[in-house]
Specification:
The chain contains 5 helices and 3 strands, in the order ββααβααα. The chain is α+β, with helices and mostly antiparallel strands. The protein has one domain. The radius of gyration is 16 Å and the shape is globular. The longest helix has 13 residues, at 82-94. Strands 1-2-3 form a 3-stranded antiparallel sheet. It has helices at residues 49-53, 57-67, 74-78, 82-94, 99-110; strands at residues 15-26, 29-37, 68-69.
């Protein structure tokens, strides 16, 4: 008998590596990828969760320097190319998705 039960959605990762199509150039070298970790409560100071979930770029810009390795400044975040910018914002928003929302997203990407 074949099991047709869908695989459970993966738990939200604690960090995600985002390769940049256009590296960040700064004194001391180029940054070709960012490791973005799941924010903790203190990382969210000065922001509203509703703004982060709504992908408000100014709210994400406040959090980004606190959760990226290597750490990037807000002006470097704002200077990302559109595709890299969208990928970084989407990664941050993804940390706030519920299990049910992750399941829906996984289902959408399978078909």
């Amino acid at each position: 008998m074949t099991d047709t039960t869908p695989a459970p959605a993966q738990a939200a990762s604690t960090s995600v590596v985002v390769p940049l199509a256009q590296p960040i150039v700064r004194e001391g070298g180029r940054i070709a990828s960012l490791t973005i970790r799941k924010p903790k409560g203190g990382d969210l100071r000065g922001t509203k969760l509703t703004d982060l979930v709504a992908a408000d770029v100014d709210a994400v810009a406040k959090v980004i320097p606190r959760i990226t390795t290597p750490a990037i400044a807000a002006h470097e975040f704002y200077g990302l190319e559109a595709d890299d910018f969208a990928e970084v914002v989407g990664t941050v928003v993804g940390f706030f998705l519920s299990k049910a929302q992750r399941e829906v997203m996984a289902e959408m990407t399978v078909h």
